[in-house]
Backbone:
């Protein structure tokens, strides 16, 4: 047994909330829309801008989570044939990745239900680049190379949304807002996913050969490029459909862009993959402190 892996999901059945725990009836209440406008844009008269922004970001995140889940399942399946070495002994790594993948599907389901309930719209992305992103991981690279590359790219977004969860928990400590509840529900699982990412940094990366690290870097760069394309095209589509530029006059969008770029610099360094809190610069820590009341991103 690998204790560090085993312990990640030891209490997953207790620290977990099904989407049915969400107060769906309250998602579109006028008080909630005012709260979202205030938290996203800093004013109570920007309901459309705030809800369009949330639709774009959470729908895009749902697509990325579907991708993560699909690649995780592929890694698990390939490990049965090609998973050799100490890391694959026993069931701990497969179990951790299985939990990760199943929770990502549930997150995507929950986010899509939330944005469609919030806005009363059922917009489908015209191109989610799913096939292109999946194709990147269909090559002959080892399961551990694919796992490391996948976790590296997912870790950036996971770290960004963790900042927003911290912010909302501090702004709404009693979790009266359905949006705060949504991020809390997501964060219960995300804390375990972060611990799995950190396991990959500590134990999987050191096991890779120089050639495998280069392969990992190529997968990371290609995935990041496609994720950026997804972000740009989904933003353009949803601006047309909502009829509002939700990225201007929007404090949350400004901070999100700044910390996403800073986190990429901290996390993705050539053929490496690093823990974000170990490599943040002082300006980014000050921004985090101002926005979320915490200079740290993760606490485990």
Residues:
């Amino acid at each position: 047994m690998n204790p560090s892996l085993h312990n990640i999901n030891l209490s997953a059945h207790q620290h977990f909330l099904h989407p049915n725990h969400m107060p769906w009836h309250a998602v579109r209440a006028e008080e909630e829309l005012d709260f979202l406008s205030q938290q996203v844009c800093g004013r109570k008269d920007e309901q459309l801008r705030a809800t369009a922004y949330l639709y774009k970001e959470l729908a895009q995140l749902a697509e990325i989570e579907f991708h993560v889940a699909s690649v995780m399942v592929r890694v698990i399946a390939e490990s049965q044939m090609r998973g050799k070495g100490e890391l694959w002994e026993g069931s701990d790594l497969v179990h951790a990745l299985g939990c990760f993948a199943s929770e990502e599907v549930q997150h995507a389901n929950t986010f899509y239900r939330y944005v469609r309930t919030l806005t009363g719209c059922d917009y489908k992305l015209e191109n989610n680049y799913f096939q292109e992103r999946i194709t990147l991981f269909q090559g002959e690279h080892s399961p551990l190379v694919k796992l490391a590359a996948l976790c590296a790219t997912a870790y950036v977004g996971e770290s960004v949304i963790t900042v927003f969860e911290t912010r909302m928990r501090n702004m709404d400590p009693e979790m009266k807002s359905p949006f705060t509840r949504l991020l809390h529900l997501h964060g219960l699982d995300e804390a375990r996913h972060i611990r799995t990412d950190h396991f990959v940094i500590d134990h999987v990366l050191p096991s890779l050969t120089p050639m495998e690290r280069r392969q990992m870097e190529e997968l990371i760069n290609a995935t990041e490029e496609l994720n950026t394309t997804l972000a740009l095209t989904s933003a353009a589509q949803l601006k047309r459909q909502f009829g509002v530029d939700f990225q201007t006059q929007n404090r949350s969008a400004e901070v999100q862009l700044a910390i996403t770029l800073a986190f990429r610099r901290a996390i993705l360094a050539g053929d490496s993959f690093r823990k974000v809190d170990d490599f943040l610069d002082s300006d980014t820590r000050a921004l985090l402190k101002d926005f979320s009341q915490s200079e740290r991103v993760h606490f485990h």
User: Anything to note?
Assistant: The first strand starts at residue 268 and ends at 269. The two ends are 21 Å apart (CA to CA).
